[in-house]
């Protein structure tokens, strides 16, 4: 398993797209980061790729308004999606992003894994639950990262992970849950492993032909 570990540090900015028509060709594998505004999506991307300012972070919710694509290597991309659930943006703007987000999730064939980021202090809000439920129904594997774990004691953080795991277990599907902190790098190894395994499915057909090699 660990030999699949992909070097996420190689990620580099490819494009910011207002909607799915402007995205790179829909081939290879994409892993998307979704979650409420301010949940820590962009920070998690920077932490996982060990790049301080790959994705733009902000104290002001609603910072990521476009679909931002980062290529790791050919056919392997990380995607920072616009956050949902932030009340204070003008309705027209909100409609536009939610449309882009919805279209991305529904139509993107290369989407092979969804990282759902939720603040550990208030996880599984309605929209989070709906998103995860949709992913499970669509047979998309989910990695739920409970972000800002540094804001809780270790005991409380572990209890919250168990709590979320228990609730999500009812959905069935391939759903993993870990505590995560960009500040303390909690959960980075686990998250990297899960994401690596998703990307590795692209290389698998070659592995199956092991007989070709000596
Ligand atoms: N303490 C702590 N703060 C964090 C952590 N991750 C993110 N933050 C803070 O949370 C705020 C939002 O982080 P972002 O990464 O910009 O959140 P986002 O989900 O990309 O937000 P939008 O793009 O607006 O949807 C910033 O002020 C970050 O510094 C963490 O692990 N620990
Ligand atoms: Mg962001």
Describe the structure.
The relative contact order is 0.18. This protein has a 7-stranded mixed sheet, with helices on both faces. It has helices spanning 41-49, 91-107, 126-137, 154-169, 188-200, 204-208; strands spanning 12-17, 29-35, 67-73, 76-80, 111-119, 142-147, 175-179. It is globular, with a radius of gyration of 17 Å. It has 6 helices and 7 strands. The mean pLDDT is 89. With 214 residues, it is an alpha/beta fold. The chain binds guanosine-5'-triphosphate and magnesium ion.
Q: Hetero groups bound?
A: guanosine-5'-triphosphate, magnesium ion
Q: What would the principal axes of the Cα set say about the shape? A: globular
Give the N-terminus to C-terminus distance in angstroms.
21 Å
Strand order of the largest sheet: 1-3-4-2-5-6-7
Low-confidence stretches: none
Strand content: 15-25%
Q: Work out the helicity level.
A: 25-40%
**Averaged pLDDT, please?**
89
- Topology pattern, helix = H, strand = E: EEHEEHEHEHEHH
Class derived from helix and strand content:
alpha/beta
Supply the number of helical segments.
6
Rg on CA atoms, Å: 17 Å
**Main sheet: strands, sense, barrel:** 7 strands, mixed
Total beta-strand segments: 7
Cofactor: Mg(2+)
Function: Necessary for normal cell division and for the maintenance of normal septation.
InterPro entries: G_ENGB_dom, GTP-bd, GTP-bd_ribosome_bio_YsxC, P-loop_NTPase
Protein name: Probable GTP-binding protein EngB
